Structures are given as structure tokens and as C-alpha cells.
Automatic annotation (TrEMBL):
This is Heme exporter protein A. Its EC number is 3.6.3.41. GO terms for molecular function: ATP binding; ATP hydrolysis activity; transmembrane transporter activity. It comes from the Bacteria. Keywords: ATP-binding, Cytochrome c-type biogenesis, Hydrolase, Membrane, Nucleotide-binding, Translocase, Transport. It comes from Bartonella choladocola. Signal peptide: none annotated. InterPro entries: AAA+_ATPase, ABC_transporter-like_ATP-bd, ABC_transptr_haem_export_CcmA, P-loop_NTPase. SMART domains: AAA (SM00382). The lineage of its organism: Bacteria, Pseudomonadati, Pseudomonadota, Alphaproteobacteria, Hyphomicrobiales. It is an enzyme of class 3 (hydrolase). The keyword Cell wall biogenesis/degradation does not apply.
Length: 207
């Protein structure tokens, strides 16, 4: 499978964040998006996920000559974890398990992978910041999608939790998965590409 972006640009209001951005990523590859706060890292991820429309350019997935919307092939992990605080950990994961197709692990199996077995009965809202992030990571394991789109995925994780997540990402890559991550911190796995958004700032004349 191939994900290809051609001449992407994005705006926030009337401000051009980046332009002329191109990349290609294949199975078993990892790409990071870096740059200072406010430069458009999260915006780029959300464009790839299909949540936002690019100002210009195209992005598509291709496999065996067929073209697919990238959103149909993606798991998106944003900064807000996408969990209901009043529901238990298990209830939240059961919702996502029922929502997603192509099931991979059960909620309890996913919790075991992030070493949180035994807290499934707790309301999500009472968990620590790191535990909340690990539950959100467990959601990625409930069903298989080839592309993981991760926004600051290691934020709030301690060293041990980061090493757990690094192994999870490596396992995903070994299943022919792809990862695109916006991050300030090293992911703990080898990356194939890096997009430094500073290199795609608008020309003054064009902005």
C-alpha cells in the first residue's frame, strides 16, 4: 500500500500554515512530522485523516492499482483521547470495539498489551494522565487499520509506558502497518522519513 500527498497546503483562517508539501509512505514505514507549536502539525494530521480539507493539493491511498480515501484505512489518535470520562475503561473500549470493523483484539486483550489489566472497572475520568493515554493507545489495538495517525502520542507517558508503546508501534509496523506521527519527542522506534514543517512555510509573496 502507498499513501501519497501532492502539493498540500493548509490555512488557518486567512493565514497559510504550509504549502507545496509532498510525501509518499509505504507499508512498514514510519514518518514523523516536526516543528514548533502552531506551525500546523496537527492540522496536517487532520487533513490526512480526512477531518479537514486541504487548501490545495491531494492525498490518496493506492493498493493494487485501486485508489482509496485515506480516512477509510486509518486510526487517528488525537490529543483528547476520544473517551467518555463518566464511562468505565471497559465500557469505552467496548464502544470502540463495536464501532470499528476488522476486529483485532478484545478490550481486555488490548488493556493487557498496555499493562493496564485490573483497572477496566474504573471510570475513565479518574485515571492519571498517563493511564488515560495508555487506554487511548489500547483503542488502536481493537481493530486493524493499516495507517496510524498519531498526534503527540507519547505526551503524558513515563519512560516505561513509552517503551511499551514503542513495542506496540513496532508490532504494528511488522504487520505491514504504517505510522505518521506529529511529535516533539522521539518515538523510540526507527523512522524512515521526517517532515520538518519549517521547510514548507509560505513564501511572503504568496501568503
Amino acid at each position: 500500500m502507498e499513501i501519497k500527498a501532492v502539493e498540500l497546503s493548509a490555512k488557518r483562517g486567512e493565514e497559510v500554515l504550509f504549502q507545496h508539501l509532498c510525501f509518499t509512505i509505504h507499508d512498514r514505514e514510519v514518518m514523523t512530522i516536526t516543528g514548533p507549536n502552531g506551525i500546523g502539525k496537527s492540522t496536517l494530521l487532520r487533513i490526512i485523516a480526512g477531518f479537514l480539507q486541504a487548501n490545495e493539493g491531494t492525498i490518496e491511498a493506492k493498493e493494487d492499482g485501486q485508489i482509496f480515501p485515506v480516512a477509510l484505512l486509518s486510526h487517528y489518535l488525537g490529543s483528547q483521547n476520544a473517551m467518555k470520562t463518566h464511562l468505565s475503561v471497559l465500557q469505552n473500549l467496548e464502544f470502540w470495539s463495536n464501532f470499528d470493523s476488522a476486529q483485532l483484539l478484545s478490550p481486555m486483550e488490548a488493556l493487557d498489551q498496555v499493562e493496564l489489566s485490573g483497572i477496566e472497572h474504573l471510570p475513565f475520568g479518574v485515571l492519571s494522565t498517563g493511564q488515560k493515554r495508555r487506554v487511548a493507545i489500547a483503542r488502536l489495538l481493537l481493530s486493524h487499520q493499516p495507517l496510524w495517525l498519531l498526534d503527540e502520542p507519547t505526551s503524558g507517558l513515563d519512560k516505561h509506558a513509552s517503551s511499551i508503546f514503542a513495542k506496540i508501534m513496532e508490532d504494528h509496523r511488522n504487520r505491514s502497518g504504517m505510522i505518521i506521527a506529529a511529535t516533539h519527542l522521539p518515538l523510540g522506534i526507527e523512522e524512515n522519513y521526517n517532515i520538518l514543517l519549517d521547510n514548507y512555510l509560505p513564501d511572503f509573496e504568496e501568503s
